[in-house]
Design a protein that fits this description.
This protein is mainly α. The chain has helices spanning 5-10, 22-47, 50-55, 76-93, 97-114, 133-142, 157-162, 166-176. The longest helix is centred in the N-terminal third of the chain and has 26 residues, at 22-47. Belongs to the sterol desaturase family.
Length: 186
């Protein structure tokens, strides 16, 4: 974030009063989520190619059953590579500093929730269509190989469009019929 400050300033970031309206903030945050999902999906999918997975992304996958802190546990190259997905939206729009901070807080909360290992009754995936959440991301971490699927960040539309969530959807269907979720049975 410190090194990206000059880029944000150059792209028009404001830090003075007046604060942007809630409509501006909301539209920018929605744009950031959509763009971040698209960029993250492709970056994450690339990290699951054989060489990058072995040398970079496998660090993040050392935990097959993730918990909140593992959301930020990654190889430095991965942090830079996937971090681009988070900052590209604000770099394009030049938001107010408060909007940028809100965006960063929402991203950290989302990624911690996705890695928390629990699907709570109040989880956003119960209320927001196409929201992945912990259940969706846990499936991704439990399969320790390069083609695990479920590469999306927040929303699952990219995995659905490109069919990289087929294993997860199959598991959900089996669970709905009461069949044990042992990956060896699939």
């Amino acid at each position: 974030m410190i090194f990206s400050y000059p880029v944000f300033k150059y792209m028009g970031m404001q830090s003075s009063l007046p604060l942007p309206s809630w409509k501006v903030v909301l539209s920018q945050i929605i744009f950031y989520f959509i763009l971040e999902d698209f960029v993250f999906y492709w970056g994450h999918r690339i990290l699951h190619t054989k060489w990058l997975y072995k040398h970079v992304h496998s660090v993040h996958h050392e935990y097959a059953t993730p918990f909140g802190l593992t959301s930020e546990y990654a190889h430095p190259a991965e942090i830079l590579f996937l971090g681009f997905a988070t900052i590209v939206g604000p770099a394009i729009t030049g938001p107010h500093l408060m909007t940028l901070w809100l965006w960063m807080v929402l991203r950290v909360l989302e990624t911690v929730e996705a890695h928390c290992g629990y699907h709570f009754p109040w989880s956003l995936s119960n209320f927001i269509p196409l929201y992945g959440g912990a259940d969706f991301h846990d499936y991704h971490h439990r399969l320790l190989y390069t083609k695990s699927g479920n590469y999306s960040s927040t929303f699952v539309y990219m995995d659905w469009i490109f069919g990289t969530d087929k294993g997860y959807r199959k598991l959900k269907a089996l669970k709905s019929f009461g069949i044990e979720d042992d990956p060896k049975q699939m």
